[in-house]
Design brief:
Layout lengths: L12 H25 L3 H22 L2 E2 L15 E2 L1 H19 L21 H19 L6 H10 L19
Antiparallel strand pairs: 1-2
Helix pairs in contact: 1-2, 2-3, 2-4, 3-4, 4-5
């Protein structure tokens, strides 16, 4: 799998859903809740951006998926409804905007500040904001098929606050550099 060796015979779709909903989506929701409760806006912002990105990938692959009731087992929801993909996209934009707002919140106490535990940007909030805006650009690219997004795309591009250098890439490092 780590060498692009997925074939139609070996890909386990069930494991993908379980891994996403019991792992990634749930963990990000826990981080958001704990970060907000402890005024850790930077962690909250990062987790919201990662959550929006993860769900954007999932909805683009599967279409209708559990979103609004996902990760609500504590509320007694054991069978979350499947939300329409078109209804999820606006919520992803809102989640990205919330993440940007958290990362820009100079008044937050942030008793814990990410550094080496942030494997993507080392805690650099400005790079996370660029990543969020670039993810928005990706989402608008998908939405262009069903609505006019020229204004939104132009605003993002003209802002200059998107990933525009390889050193700013939204990548999880794999392996070592020497």
């Amino acid at each position: 799998l780590d060498k692009y060796g997925v074939t139609g015979n070996s890909f386990d779709i069930q494991a993908t859903w379980l891994s996403f909903y019991q792992g990634s989506a749930n963990n990000l929701e826990v981080i958001i809740q704990k970060a907000e409760a402890n005024d850790n806006a930077i962690y909250s912002g990062i987790a919201k951006i990662l959550k929006a990105y993860a769900y954007s990938q999932f909805v683009d692959v599967f279409g209708n998926i559990p979103f609004s009731e996902a990760s609500k087992l504590d509320s007694g929801i054991t069978y979350p409804v499947f939300d329409k993909d078109a209804d999820i996209y606006p919520q992803l934009f809102a989640l990205l905007d919330d993440g940007i707002k958290d990362l820009s919140n100079a008044a937050a106490a942030n008793p814990l500040v990410p550094s080496s535990d942030d494997l993507i940007y080392g805690g650099d909030a400005s790079l996370w904001i660029k990543a969020a805006n670039t993810i928005k650009l990706k989402l608008y690219t998908q939405e262009r098929l069903v609505k006019d997004v020229k204004t939104e795309v132009s605003q993002l591009i003209n802002s200059g606050n998107i990933i525009n250098a390889t050193s700013e890439s939204f990548l999880l490092p794999y392996g070592t550099n020497g």
